[in-house]
Batch of 2 targets.
Target 1
Amino acid sequence: MESGSRRVPSPPTAHHRHPWGFGRMKRTGRPFIPHLQSSHPHKEAKRTVQDADSTRLIQALEEGAKKLDFRPLLEGFRSVFCAHGIDADRIQIPMIKPLGFRHPTIWGVLLTWNRHQGFANTSVMTHDDAAEAGIGNDKSFEDDLASAETPRNPYGFVHGEHDWFFSCALDDPPHDFSIFRTLQDEGMRHYACFRLNMPAVHLPAVVSLSAANPFPADLRARLDGLRSILGMACYGAYRTSQAHKIASTYVGPTTGPRVLDGQIVRGSSETIEAGVMFCDVRGFTALSRKVGTDIIQIMNRLFEVIGDEAHQRGGEILKFIGDAMLLIFPLAGRQPEDVATMLIDTVNAAHPRVAAVAKETGHDLGVGFGCHIGEVIYGNVGTPERLDFTVMGPAVNLASRLESCCKQLGTHAVFSSVIQELAPQLQHAGEQDLKGIDGPTPVWVLPRS
């Protein structure tokens, strides 16, 4: 990738969900840093942007928003380049946090297209990866780019006090950057990168082009006329992605799109059938006193493993409530028996992973689960200034009360009679007087192995 000279050990190759939530991309722990080389300003007249360019980019943004994917944007860039006689064999846009990209979990996407490999080399880096690689700090990243002495990569030539455009022949490059050697090995002989014009970002995005055959002699003039429209398209893709992912991350993958679709009126609601799971961390108060602010990292690890198992089975985290988590498994399109199985399987899969986190952190950690299936009110509640999607109703209360029985019954999960009727392998554990629930309530637990 187009990175500087710093190298860090890469974690095992993994795939990460695309920043917009769909598709798979290669994840890398190696730092990818934008590259640059500046050329002296030329006198060629700036080429004009055609209506067709705007149409191509609007179509690319629309397709990207529908598919929740950045790749149509780069395809749109490529189409515009070709229309202006710029035929590249490789195009790269480093969509990273220091260059205006914003995402709750992803530090950057190295969006790369190659004529022979398509998007195979596109990769992502999480915020944790970036911090581990020593590039998570935006200020230090900016300082690297602004260095007037020896840029660590080509992008250093098009930021700071440098020109917006850089190009060179790869047969005899002016600097020995690792990316140049990589491109030479891929058969590239000509390279260029340029800074986009973008609004509301401190450091605009950069695009790099590589080709086996020479670019037009007036490449600079051709690109100068495109910088603003390409920058606006890139900014639009950034913000659309940000809106989708923030809504999905903070509200949920099912609820988030509803908010973006306009279902945001205070008081709007509907009644749905769903499996409800309430889980609570045992001994949270004592643990938080013991570990202080480290409690956040511990809770993140616990929530991560539980949320991962729920997500694999069609569940959605609806809310974090201090040291507790509320999840739903909507029945829409599913059989009740299947949802009961999802709840039980999530508990069975999450329990050993919680134990693994306890061993990893060296703390005595435990989580209790309460599960029920029933009718819930799913809606938008709050004040005029602060709204939230949530579920309410007796089914939610029962799931919470069932979880509160875990300690007394010496188990990590308690289920309702509704679930037992759908999953007869559950064992009766007597009746409990639950707060807010009329009469003794039969409770059920997992069979002891």
Target 2
Amino acid sequence: HFTLTLSSLIETDGTRVQSDMSEDEFVQFTRSDRPDFYCILDARGIPLEQSGSLPEIELYPIQGHQPAFQSARFRDKRPGRAVSLRIFPKYDPEGFDDDESNPGRYPEQVSSNQAWNQRIDDLEKGSTVEGTHRDDSNRVDSLHLPLPLILARDTLELNHSLQRVSLWLILATSLTLLLGIAAASVVSKVGLLPLERTAAYISQVDFQNLERRIEFPQAPAEIQSLIGSLNQMLDRLEVGYDRERNFSANVAHELRTPLAGLKSTAEVVLSRPRAPAEYRQALQQCLTISNETESIIENLLMLARLDSGGCELDCDICHVDQLIRMTGNSLLEAASSRGLGFVFTLEPPIRILTDGAKMKLVLHNILENAVTYADANSTIFIRANNLDGQLRIEVANRCTHFDNSTLEKMFERFWRADIARSLTGKHSGIGLPLCQSLIRLLNGQIDVRVDQENVVTVGITIPSHNGAN
């Protein structure tokens, strides 16, 4: 609106430009408190008309027809913004003021009446002349010479408003952040309450009450899954602790029995003077008991090393068929005393890469159990073959007091089918658990089954070309 008004107050006769502006008409430029600023320039950038003191801005003729904005600073140090645009003075050669006191200014674009008339003639002939336009009758009613206009206004109020908005934004952001932290604290505290209760419950569990389980039905579904896993862990801990407790009791029992035998033998021999042959017989009996005790201790140590992963393999080519026959022959005397016989079904030669010493220990324990628990006057069948890269060995014998319920306990440590433990000192109940651990170390498997005729079959399977794990 201001630019239109200002254009109507600026006149040109084609060679000069003059302004009929009155300062009373635009009080925003003449007020004493923070006045605005305007300036009309010629093409050379020389002010033709201006108000107040010039702000500290770079005055330059603008290019094109789009307004150009820039920062400004007034002489009184007020910050501001300025815009440069074009205005078109009114062409009025008849009403131009010829007062010598106000001769007007000569813009560079039009230097003579002849040049101005030439522009009019070109327009009348239909040529396009920058800064002109026609009405509907195709008649030139006015000719506007575009002149640069600069308007400037201070931005104190705007800056203060922006500062207030920034302050409110900072306060709002800080308050939102504090409220968010408080809300997160409350939510996390409420959300972690089930975990805290679960942790408090677990802290009360020790080896005196491992049978206790975590019960928290009000907990969320996510916590219920965790509680279920913790209860399963407590189940395993209880089973492991009971096994260790029973292990200590069983070891004490197994070692107390041979020690009691040694003590009683020594007491009987020393109760009165005896012949040298009787002393020799007592010493031989003590040596037998010592060897059996040593065997129990060695098996316990081997089992402990296997459990801790500290047992290493010494692999070499092993002739399994020969090893089976040698182990069976070493037990012929014990088998004959119970009327037992061996039937070997082997496919020689059977050779694999494995730890021969550990393989011998496995075969000896399995065959010794067969000789001990097989029905008297029966036959023990031993089969071995090497097919498809797998060595399969089976030891089968009839045992009428074995059934499927017995199979579940055969690999428990210190469990024995001899309920009365009449064989204490000879069988400690760790033979099959030891075999199971050794076969696993050899990257194999061991299994036991009982058929309807109470024939117990113990089978082992290990890779024939990769026996070492």
